[in-house]
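Response to reviewer comment R2.3. The reviewers asked that we include at least one raw input/output pair. We reproduce the pair for Gfo/Idh/MocA-like oxidoreductase N-terminal domain-containing protein here without editing.
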Amino acid sequence: MQKNLLPFLQRGSRDYQPVVCVDPDAEQACYVQALTGAHATASTIEDVDLAAIDAAIVAVPPEPSAEIAEQLLQHRIHCFVEKPAGPSTPSLRRLSEVAGKMPDVHLQVGFNFRYAAALRQLHEATVSARESPCWLQIEFCSRHPSAPQWGVDTTVESWIRQNGVHAFDLAQWFIPSPVERVDGHSLPTSDPDRFLAVVGLHHADGSHSMLRVGNQTQRFQVNAAVHASDGSVYAAPSLESVVLSRDAGMPAGTQLFGQKPLDHGWDRSGFGPELEAFVATCLDRSSAQFPGITDALTGSQLCDQALSELKPSSASAATSVA
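Raw output as returned:
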């Protein structure tokens, strides 16, 4: 919230006006109100005149997230919901059913890395390459969380559902072909709350996604590469660049995109662009595809299957991907 939602609301715009900040912690609600210029604060949704609200940003823990979003949708309020948007696959399935009955109400889930500048460039550059079966590599590592959170029993599950779901979402964004099988292997580490895992996704079209995920790293790492059937490799080795290496007998590449890390992650991580896209869609200014509740549900199902492979004793029951 500190890195994406508050900076966006602080910037201000003629396109929107913060109306009310809702938080059971009155001090926190007043703090956000002071930063955003909202007209009022409230402790619960029930204290808000929902008829005066057009759109809402829901940034709360997973347990109440889906319930709050459902309540707002039933009042025909557009919602941006931070991922994972719910505590479990059944809760997301219910939210998907509610949203499906209101196709004119916008429900976007906060998979911000789809809007990261380098990853969008990589996605656009590989449209033709991904028309044939390909191999996708994604690395997504972050030091936190390093302890169980949100009512789950293990650090592994906390991390997979909070951060690993980003990697699964990116895999489905690059290769939308359904996943038929999930393989997983966790490498041992010296700290029981630190892990490194490799997860393989076998897609119906013959493509394969290999995800390297974990919290064993000292720093945040995101990179991706698409290996095309002609031997070419399109890679985003970081969130600052995209490089094409063609199979021409020489270990040389061409930089397709590059930017210096001067924005403190605003565009590089997609934080600003995803919220700008949400506002544009609410105002009917954009018909671009956005990550929605169906993507969140698919991501959760993949989390279930990966956890059953990585940690059978503590994982949720595996769920097949429809």
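Residues 114-258+294-310 form a domain with the Dihydrodipicolinate Reductase; domain 2 fold (CATH 3.30.360.10). DSSP finds eight helices and 13 strands in the chain. Further pairs are available on request from the corresponding author.
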